[in-house]
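Q: Structure tokens for this one, please.
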Amino acid sequence: MNFSTTHASGSTSQAANIMEAVECGSGLLLIDEDRSATNFMIRDSRMKQLIAKEPITPFTDRVQELATNGVSTILVIGGSGEYLAVADKVYMMDEFRISDVSGKAKIIAPTMDELPTKGEWATTRRMQSGGFTSFPAGSGTERLEVSDTGFIIVGDEKIDIRALHNIATPAQVDALALMLRHMMQHTEGDTSEMVRMAMEKRGFEVIPSDKPIDVTAKITALYAKIAVEGLDVVDTGFFVTMERFLDLPRQIELRAAINRMRYVTWEGV
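A: Here is the predicted structure, written as tokens:
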């Protein structure tokens, strides 16, 4: 499936968020029922009988499947008992005291309805090199900026990182921008001669525009390089608006920033 929108619903946003977390290697999902999309989290037996062609598979039907794939879930609930049948452990807070009520929960909700066909959770896509560049289209000058409003501007991209709440300091944002630019040290085979010359002077590799990029391998290699040479290896000194002191973000934040780029394309493998 190839689906894209700039105005996703709550259920679509939450599904995409979980898929991104799984792809980035997360082994634990922390979910609060109060902050979740109800039609994504649950669909009870009566609603299943009423709506036969519901396109959304509720999270209740996938949570055990995720667990068998190494992704656990801690879910805080208070309004729906649909998860009692699929929970390995159920703990209850009563007057600020916690107790294990797993046995009682299994009596109340002993089994789950028939589950859907298992999904495919393995990563099956690679990014095309075309568009993954710090040079705006037709320009021989790189563009890399960090805005005060929560955007990284690189090449033609304006990456919205406002929802990446684990980026804690401005120095991490600067590091994230410079790390993205460092990963973009390539030029496409059909680039103009002016742009090609400018990029080659800065140490960029010339590769075909349709060559896929293994993002996981690139990120792994970058962090290995930083571990040996230090974070300053990504700072070329070209971008004077960036601070000199950088904080290293987690790999998942770098992957999330790449996932929020609008001008790159992905292909299945």
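A few notes: The longest helix spans residues 215-229. The first strand starts at residue 28 and ends at 32.
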